[in-house]
Write a structure and sequence with these properties.
The chain is an all-alpha fold and about 190 residues long. The chain has helices at about 1-25, 35-40, 45-50, 55-75, 80-105, 110-130, 130-135, 140-155, 155-165, 170-185. It folds into two domains: about 1-50, Homeodomain-like (Arc Repressor Mutant, subunit A); about 60-185, Tetracycline Repressor, domain 2 (Orthogonal Bundle), CATH 1.10.357. The radius of gyration is 19 Å and the shape is elongated.
């Protein structure tokens, strides 16, 4: 019984690994359950049995992805602007392009819209925890405005503008994000 449970979990992990790789490197529309099954070395029905549908599998991948991002970002020391900028850009170097692809489908595919809403909530909580000095003493609309400014500076779209659209190096992108964050601190 125990060996069966371990085999079940190992199969599930292989499917999730294959799905994560595909969802991170391709557009959602290009990913198929058949392709994931092939990459994971299992039958299509095995994928369906574990996750039910492409949407169910995507949701499971996003749950793991969100946990990974939270664990990575939790290493940021509150108040360490330079460290937070470095950590954020490192995160986006790995996940930014996939995030941008997902944003292009926001509102069209419900499971992606739901995943993005969860990601925004996680990001907001991270910003509030990581940059307390920028929010200190602010209340109501003034606090919300400052928080939105911090969210904008640390958003994946800002990384995309700096890194992809304007062609900044990773180091220059870190510097730009750090300087923008510093401008929002008293």
């Amino acid at each position: 019984m125990r060996a069966r449970a371990e085999a079940h979990e190992a199969t599930r992990a292989r499917i999730l690994e294959a799905a994560t790789e595909q969802f991170m490197s391709r557009s959602y529309d290009e990913v198929t359950l058949r392709g994931i099954a092939k990459e994971a070395g299992v039958a299509l029905q095995t994928v369906v049995n574990h996750f039910g549908s492409k949407e169910g599998l995507f949701a499971a991948v996003m749950e793991g992805f969100r946990e990974q991002v939270q664990a990575h970002r939790s290493r940021a020391t509150p108040g360490d602007i330079a460290g937070a900028a470095e950590l954020l850009v490192a995160d986006y170097e790995e996940t930014g392009d996939a995030n941008i692809r997902g944003l292009s489908l926001d509102g069209r595919i419900p499971v992606i819209t739901e995943a993005l809403a969860g990601g925004r909530a996680v990001h907001r909580a991270w910003v509030e925890r990581t940059f307390p000095a920028a929010l200190k003493g602010l209340r109501g609309a003034a606090r919300e405005l400052r928080l939105v400014q911090l969210l904008t500076v640390t958003d994946v779209e800002t990384w995309k503008l700096l890194r992809r659209d304007h062609g900044l190096s990773r180091e220059d992108t870190v510097t730009a994000v750090r300087e923008l964050l510093e401008a929002l601190h008293p």
